[in-house]
Protein backbone atom coordinates (compact mmCIF):
# COMPACT_ATOMS: atom_id res chain seq x y z
CA UNK A 1 0.00 0.00 0.00
CA UNK A 2 1.26 3.49 -0.76
CA UNK A 3 2.31 5.79 2.13
CA UNK A 4 -0.62 8.19 1.59
CA UNK A 5 -3.20 5.41 1.97
CA UNK A 6 -1.33 3.94 4.92
CA UNK A 7 -1.20 7.28 6.74
CA UNK A 8 -4.85 8.01 5.97
CA UNK A 9 -6.00 4.62 7.25
CA UNK A 10 -3.76 4.89 10.29
CA UNK A 11 -5.12 8.36 11.07
CA UNK A 12 -8.67 7.06 10.75
CA UNK A 13 -7.88 4.14 13.06
CA UNK A 14 -6.34 6.50 15.60
CA UNK A 15 -9.45 8.67 15.50
CA UNK A 16 -11.68 5.63 16.05
CA UNK A 17 -9.60 4.82 19.16
CA UNK A 18 -10.08 8.41 20.40
CA UNK A 19 -6.46 9.30 19.64
CA UNK A 20 -7.65 12.45 17.93
CA UNK A 21 -4.34 14.24 18.32
CA UNK A 22 -2.51 11.34 16.66
CA UNK A 23 -5.01 11.29 13.82
CA UNK A 24 -4.32 14.95 13.01
CA UNK A 25 -0.59 14.24 12.95
CA UNK A 26 -1.13 11.47 10.39
CA UNK A 27 -3.51 13.55 8.28
CA UNK A 28 -1.03 16.43 8.33
CA UNK A 29 1.65 14.03 7.09
CA UNK A 30 -0.61 13.09 4.18
CA UNK A 31 -0.85 16.76 3.23
CA UNK A 32 2.92 17.23 3.64
CA UNK A 33 3.54 14.32 1.25
CA UNK A 34 0.95 15.46 -1.30
CA UNK A 35 -0.48 18.95 -0.91
CA UNK A 36 -3.06 18.25 -3.61
CA UNK A 37 -4.86 16.02 -1.10
CA UNK A 38 -5.39 18.90 1.36
CA UNK A 39 -8.94 19.82 0.27
CA UNK A 40 -10.07 16.19 0.43
CA UNK A 41 -9.02 15.48 4.02
CA UNK A 42 -12.49 15.70 5.58
CA UNK A 43 -11.32 13.27 8.27
CA UNK A 44 -8.83 15.92 9.38
CA UNK A 45 -11.67 18.43 9.72
CA UNK A 46 -13.56 16.06 12.01
CA UNK A 47 -10.46 15.56 14.14
CA UNK A 48 -9.89 19.31 14.36
CA UNK A 49 -13.49 19.74 15.51
CA UNK A 50 -12.90 17.35 18.40
CA UNK A 51 -9.70 19.19 19.32
CA UNK A 52 -11.78 22.40 19.53
CA UNK A 53 -9.70 23.90 16.70
CA UNK A 54 -12.87 25.21 15.10
CA UNK A 55 -11.30 27.78 12.78
CA UNK A 56 -8.97 25.21 11.21
CA UNK A 57 -11.82 22.67 11.07
CA UNK A 58 -14.14 25.13 9.33
CA UNK A 59 -11.39 26.00 6.84
CA UNK A 60 -10.86 22.28 6.12
CA UNK A 61 -14.56 21.70 5.46
CA UNK A 62 -14.87 24.82 3.34
CA UNK A 63 -11.93 23.64 1.18
CA UNK A 64 -13.63 20.27 0.81
CA UNK A 65 -16.93 21.78 -0.35
CA UNK A 66 -15.03 23.98 -2.81
CA UNK A 67 -13.83 20.82 -4.61
CA UNK A 68 -16.86 18.66 -3.79
CA UNK A 69 -19.86 21.02 -3.95
CA UNK A 70 -22.49 18.34 -3.31
CA UNK A 71 -21.05 17.27 0.05
CA UNK A 72 -23.81 18.05 2.52
CA UNK A 73 -21.99 16.58 5.50
CA UNK A 74 -19.01 18.90 5.12
CA UNK A 75 -21.35 21.90 4.95
CA UNK A 76 -22.93 20.83 8.24
CA UNK A 77 -19.55 20.24 9.89
CA UNK A 78 -18.36 23.69 8.76
CA UNK A 79 -21.54 25.03 10.38
CA UNK A 80 -20.76 23.14 13.60
CA UNK A 81 -17.23 24.56 13.65
CA UNK A 82 -18.56 28.08 13.13
CA UNK A 83 -21.57 27.99 15.46
CA UNK A 84 -20.71 30.67 17.98
CA UNK A 85 -24.31 31.73 17.56
CA UNK A 86 -26.80 29.53 15.76
CA UNK A 87 -28.30 32.33 13.69
CA UNK A 88 -24.87 33.65 12.72
CA UNK A 89 -23.72 30.22 11.58
CA UNK A 90 -26.97 29.74 9.65
CA UNK A 91 -26.30 32.95 7.68
CA UNK A 92 -22.86 31.64 6.68
CA UNK A 93 -23.93 28.08 5.92
CA UNK A 94 -22.34 26.67 2.81
CA UNK A 95 -24.63 26.07 -0.15
CA UNK A 96 -24.36 22.57 -1.59
CA UNK A 97 -25.94 20.70 -4.44
CA UNK A 98 -28.37 17.82 -4.18
CA UNK A 99 -27.40 14.97 -1.90
CA UNK A 100 -28.83 11.55 -2.82
CA UNK A 101 -29.10 10.58 0.85
CA UNK A 102 -32.49 11.56 2.26
CA UNK A 103 -31.22 11.79 5.83
CA UNK A 104 -28.50 14.23 4.75
CA UNK A 105 -30.92 16.40 2.75
CA UNK A 106 -33.16 16.63 5.81
CA UNK A 107 -30.22 17.21 8.18
CA UNK A 108 -29.04 20.06 5.95
CA UNK A 109 -32.57 21.51 5.93
CA UNK A 110 -32.70 21.25 9.72
CA UNK A 111 -29.45 23.19 10.19
CA UNK A 112 -30.47 25.71 7.51
CA UNK A 113 -33.76 26.37 9.32
CA UNK A 114 -36.04 24.68 6.77
CA UNK A 115 -36.25 21.20 8.30
CA UNK A 116 -37.83 19.72 11.38
CA UNK A 117 -36.93 17.35 14.16
CA UNK A 118 -40.13 15.45 13.44
CA UNK A 119 -39.06 14.76 9.84
CA UNK A 120 -35.69 13.56 11.13
CA UNK A 121 -37.48 11.16 13.50
CA UNK A 122 -39.58 9.88 10.59
CA UNK A 123 -36.48 9.31 8.46
CA UNK A 124 -34.94 7.33 11.35
CA UNK A 125 -37.65 4.69 10.87
CA UNK A 126 -36.65 3.83 7.27
CA UNK A 127 -33.52 1.72 7.69
CA UNK A 128 -30.66 1.02 10.08
CA UNK A 129 -28.39 3.54 8.31
CA UNK A 130 -31.16 6.15 8.23
CA UNK A 131 -31.75 5.64 11.95
CA UNK A 132 -28.07 6.08 12.75
CA UNK A 133 -27.53 9.18 10.65
CA UNK A 134 -30.82 10.84 11.55
CA UNK A 135 -30.11 10.42 15.27
CA UNK A 136 -26.48 11.49 14.94
CA UNK A 137 -27.31 14.68 13.08
CA UNK A 138 -30.34 15.38 15.24
CA UNK A 139 -28.04 15.15 18.26
CA UNK A 140 -25.47 17.43 16.66
CA UNK A 141 -28.23 19.89 15.82
CA UNK A 142 -29.48 19.86 19.41
CA UNK A 143 -25.95 20.40 20.72
CA UNK A 144 -25.49 23.36 18.37
CA UNK A 145 -28.71 24.81 19.83
CA UNK A 146 -27.43 24.41 23.41
CA UNK A 147 -29.46 21.30 24.32
CA UNK A 148 -26.65 19.11 25.70
CA UNK A 149 -28.99 16.53 27.28
CA UNK A 150 -31.02 16.12 24.09
CA UNK A 151 -27.77 15.80 22.15
CA UNK A 152 -26.45 13.16 24.55
CA UNK A 153 -29.63 11.09 24.22
CA UNK A 154 -29.71 11.19 20.41
CA UNK A 155 -25.99 10.65 19.83
CA UNK A 156 -25.95 7.77 22.33
CA UNK A 157 -28.94 6.26 20.50
CA UNK A 158 -27.05 6.57 17.22
CA UNK A 159 -23.89 5.02 18.69
CA UNK A 160 -25.86 2.15 20.25
CA UNK A 161 -28.03 1.46 17.20
CA UNK A 162 -27.52 -1.70 15.15
CA UNK A 163 -25.77 0.36 12.45
CA UNK A 164 -23.66 2.22 15.01
CA UNK A 165 -22.46 -1.03 16.56
CA UNK A 166 -22.08 -3.19 13.49
CA UNK A 167 -21.39 -1.14 10.38
CA UNK A 168 -17.71 -0.28 10.76
CA UNK A 169 -18.62 3.14 9.30
CA UNK A 170 -16.22 5.96 10.19
CA UNK A 171 -19.15 8.06 11.35
CA UNK A 172 -20.16 5.30 13.78
CA UNK A 173 -16.70 5.66 15.30
CA UNK A 174 -17.28 9.43 15.36
CA UNK A 175 -20.44 8.95 17.45
CA UNK A 176 -18.40 7.00 20.00
CA UNK A 177 -15.63 9.61 20.00
CA UNK A 178 -18.23 12.36 20.45
CA UNK A 179 -19.67 10.64 23.52
CA UNK A 180 -16.21 10.11 25.02
CA UNK A 181 -15.01 13.65 24.31
CA UNK A 182 -18.11 15.10 25.96
CA UNK A 183 -17.73 12.85 28.99
CA UNK A 184 -21.06 11.16 28.26
CA UNK A 185 -19.61 7.64 28.58
CA UNK A 186 -16.82 6.12 30.60
UniProtKB/TrEMBL annotation:
Instruction: Kindly give the SUPFAM superfamilies that the UniProt entry links to this protein.
Output: TPR-like
GO terms under cellular component: chloroplast
Name of the protein: Predicted protein
**What is the scientific name of the source organism?**
Micromonas pusilla (strain CCMP1545) (Picoplanktonic green alga)
